[in-house]
Amino acid sequence: MSTTRQDLAIDPPLAPETLAVHPWATATGRPRAHRTLNAPLHLSTQWEGADLPQLAELFARDQDRGFYTRFGHPTIRLAEERLAVLEGAADALLFSSGMGAISTSLLAVLRAGDHVVAHQSIFAQTIQFLEHLAAAAGVTVDFVNAAEPDQVAAAMGPRTRLLYLETPSNPAIDIVDIEGLAAIARAHGARVFVDSTFAGPMIQHPLSLGADLVLHSASKSLAGHADVLGGGAAGAAPLIADIRRMRVLTGATLDPHAAWLLLRSMQTLPLRVRAQSDTAERVARQLEASLAVSHIRYPFLPSHPGHEVARRQMALGGGMLSFALHGGLASTRRFVDALRWIPLASSLGSVYTTLEVPEELDFAVEEIGERASSFALPPGLVRLSIGVESAADIQRDIQLGLDAVTECAGGLSSSAERE
Ligand SMILES: *Cc1c(COP(=O)(O)O)cnc(C)c1O
């Protein structure tokens, strides 16, 4: 028998940076076939069977090759395989948005009477959806500070089916210990879901730390160009199969064109994340050194309360940080008004450096202030998402903002005024 290239297993296996680029590659080789170098984009929502038995066969066993797009689709499938490879997961699914991934995954595993323990400071709409399940579906939810593992252990009970984490968290940049908390959950027979949007698969692998499911808003760094809305979930095959069945019912399917853009974007994910992390760490140190700053959270700053955990479970610090200024919201407004070019924008994780002030957005005030889980964000907290522009340009603009705050405060020249 002649040897083809597909028979030649690649040893050692290809690195994630390589697999992210090649839409067809697997860790051990590639299929030998005449095919497009780029992934094809199929725009038909339906596939023809040659006869009724073949159509039935596509429906029963081969939905990803093409049957009807809500069930599966070859371009979406390629992007799902990329995500699975990057997460080190047996299987992965993509969704119409991060909330599509989160809501569909929760609906797939929770039943009336089940109890959920969740970190208190997670994405606002995830909290809202958990509270909706509590009100409408007979699920009970306890929000605790999962940065303190004892609080999680104390909240676990006989009906606890799920521990829901998000790290680093949006917008507070809390870090929780995935491995330690997963051990607590396992001892109680509960699953662990981790929203890893702020880190992404180049920075942390929640599945290898004991999580059952890793969730993403693909709208953020996976897509990375502020032009795609999408979500992802990766984990073991049986759990993914359950979530996939629920996705057929919720209809939270990713658009195939968005899947194609996502495939293209994931090719540069390793490059973008390294550049963003480099610059973010510099900006974090700049902010920490400023007398105008009262609070700064970046996972790789030694002053972060979760710094040790972050160094253990994250390969890079990521592009997200949050900070507050002496003088609260009034100083934040002064800071923002002094910026020359950094845009104020709602989302994050893209090639653009952007910032947002959650307190200024109504939904955050309502849901972060008055819900079952009550915790305080520092007044005027700024969430900064670092892009891939020149680090010097970013730091210069940030410095203009900081200078506007110190000039106005005048007396802020003494370090004794720092908290
Ligand atoms: C943005 C975000 C989501 C929601 O994702 P969408 O794509 O906007 O639906 C969920 N979790 C985190 C941490 C996010 O930042």
From TrEMBL:
According to the UniProt entry, which residues carry N6-(pyridoxal phosphate)lysine? K220
Q: Does the keyword Iron-sulfur apply?
A: no
- GO cellular component terms attached to this protein's record: cytoplasm
Q: Which SUPFAM superfamilies match?
A: PLP-dependent transferases
A GO MF annotation of the entry reads:
pyridoxal phosphate binding
Pfam families assigned to the protein according to its UniProt record, in alphabetical order: Cys_Met_Meta_PP (PF01053)
Q: Which cofactors is this protein said to need?
A: pyridoxal 5'-phosphate
The signal peptide here is none
GO biological process annotation, one example: transsulfuration
Which EC numbers does the record give?
4.4.1.11
Q: Which domain of life is it from?
A: Bacteria
* Annotated Gene3D superfamilies: Aspartate Aminotransferase, domain 1 (3.90.1150.10), Type I PLP-dependent aspartate aminotransferase-like (Major domain) (3.40.640.10)
- Entry keyword set: Lyase, Pyridoxal phosphate
Q: Describe the family membership recorded for this protein in Swiss-Prot or TrEMBL.
A: Belongs to the trans-sulfuration enzymes family.
Q: What name has this protein been given in UniProt?
A: Methionine-gamma-lyase
